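Board notes (copied after class):
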Amino acid sequence: MQVDILFVTEPIERPQKWTVPFDPETGALVEFYGLIRETEGSRKISALTYEAYRSMAEKVMREKIAMLGKKHPCQAIRIVHRLGLVPKGESAIYVGIQSRHRQEGFLLLQEFMDEFKKDVPIWKLTP
């Protein structure tokens, strides 16, 4: 599986531009944009700040993708995570998956996001 992981400080584009060509066998493109809500818990916010241990975060994400890719084979995954101050309404993360069929892509996305929130060293701070 082709894996593309980026950390950015500028807004994440919607729709996201892919840097890898589509595999001719791709039948589905599953995409997820994680947005900053107006509230965090019960508190109103205007933004969140994200910090990361970049090299370790990328290593952990690649390990999780390799493990999950055995279960849900896909052609490619692109992850873009924003660092620094992210205002409400903007994307903090983008995950895009190219797969032969939609089911593999949806399952890989769901399980990746569940694992990501548990173990990847990226921290969300409220201002």
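Comment from the instructor: The mean pLDDT is 94. The helical segments are 54-71, 102-119.
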